[in-house]
Design goal:
It is a single chain. The chain has eleven helices and seven strands. It is α/β, with parallel strands linked by helices. Helix 2 links the parallel strand 2 and strand 3. The longest helix is centred in the middle third of the chain and has 29 residues. The structure holds nicotinamide-adenine-dinucleotide. The site of nicotinamide-adenine-dinucleotide has 32 residues, from helix 1, helix 4 and helix 6.
Length: 309
């Protein structure tokens, strides 16, 4: 979507961190913004922060796991500002630690918000966008941890890998409707994620196998790790600007942190290196092309290369 002025964005988890960074970037582009978040005090803080743009923002208290609340929130947004053109499914929580320590509550909490919240956002707004017939854009926030494993946060990574598959499929499905779909995979960013994840955990999913971190406390970390985090952590405003740019260009992938490129490449190469060594004949190659196409990926490669030239 090139022309974003006066268009309405609906951002979940918009009250802090990356979501708030998106709000700022979108408001700067002349858009109107619904800030949807489960934390009322964070919503109040965000509204106070953005008071200069108060005519163009609507805070909505929303738990992204609550499907009935999604319908009410969508109706409220449309009643206030008209149709939603850009949906950012960004709300998320983190669960930090190895899989063997996890409980079912850890899985249900994390998948419920990080995957279920995205599904609910898509299922609420996708039919409205299709019905309206004027296109639109959906951005789903995954993570660098949705592209590469090994950071020691397996439950979180599972939820974020799932968002990758959902988003890539959705991009093909919605292209005929003129609705762009982007996958946002930020690397480490300076946000409230550790504290907010503790604050929003519902009591009925309270049994955890982890000691939840409220803050990434540099004083308890080995010095080199603390320095590494400080060196690479992105500012939420910069994350917001990257997302805005990705929407304008209809990028399939919106990525940050090129310093992780070698690891992403290693994962792709590990996959290729693990394929069977047999040589499929022409008939099998033809059949494979009928079953699957590389269109989704080749288009994104072409877009990225065109920008380089
Ligand atoms: N901070 C990072 O380093 C980083 C890296 C990669 C991906 N991400 C992803 O970015 C997204 C935004 O997180 P952030 O880092 O800005 O953290 P944040 O805590 O600053 O923002 C997340 C927001 O989501 C809200 N939220 C949580 N559960 C919710 C629910 N059930 N319904 C509605 N809102 C809910 C929180 O209240 C919070 O305001 C998340 O999906 C996170 O997984 C963050």
């Amino acid at each position: 979507m090139q022309d974003l002025k006066d268009k309405l964005a609906f951002i979940t988890g918009g009250a802090s961190g990356i979501g708030l960074g998106m709000c700022r970037a979108f408001l700067g582009a002349g858009m109107k913004v619904v800030i949807a978040d489960i934390r009322k005090e964070a919503l109040n803080r965000a509204v106070a922060d953005l008071k200069d743009a108060s005519y163009n923002i609507l805070p909505i208290h929303l738990d992204v796991t609550d499907r009935a609340a999604w319908v009410r929130a969508a109706d409220q947004a449309e009643a206030a500002f008209g149709a939603v053109s850009v949906l950012c499914n960004n709300a998320g929580i983190t669960i930090d630690g190895p899989i063997p320590q996890g409980t079912y509550d850890d899985w249900d909490f994390c998948l419920g918000v990080n995957l279920g919240g995205v599904i609910n956002g898509v299922m609420t707004f996708m039919p409205r966008m299709i019905r309206r017939g004027e296109g639109g854009h959906i951005v789903n926030t995954s993570s660098m941890g949705g592209l590469i494993a090994g950071a020691g946060s397996g439950i979180y990574s599972t939820s974020k890998f799932a968002v990758v598959g959902l988003t890539e499929e959705l991009r093909s499905d919605l292209a005929p409707h003129g609705i762009g779909v982007s996958l946002f995979c930020p690397g480490p960013t300076q946000t409230e994620l550790f504290a907010s994840s503790v604050a929003v955990r519902p009591a009925n999913l309270g049994s955890t196998g982890y000691v939840p971190r409220t803050l990434p406390d540099p004083s308890t970390m080995p010095e080199d790790i603390a320095a590494a985090i400080y060196a690479i952590a992105l500012k939420p405003e910069d994350a917001g600007r990257r997302v805005l740019e990705g929407i304008r260009r209809n990028d399939m992938y919106i990525l940050t942190h090129p310093e992780f490129g070698d690891i992403v490449r290693a994962r792709c190469e590990a996959l290729l290196a693990s394929m069977s060594r047999e040589q499929p004949g022409p008939e099998r190659l033809r059949a494979a092309k009928l079953l699957l196409t590389d269109k989704l990926y080749s288009e994104q490669i072409a877009r990225a290369r065109a920008r380089e030239n």
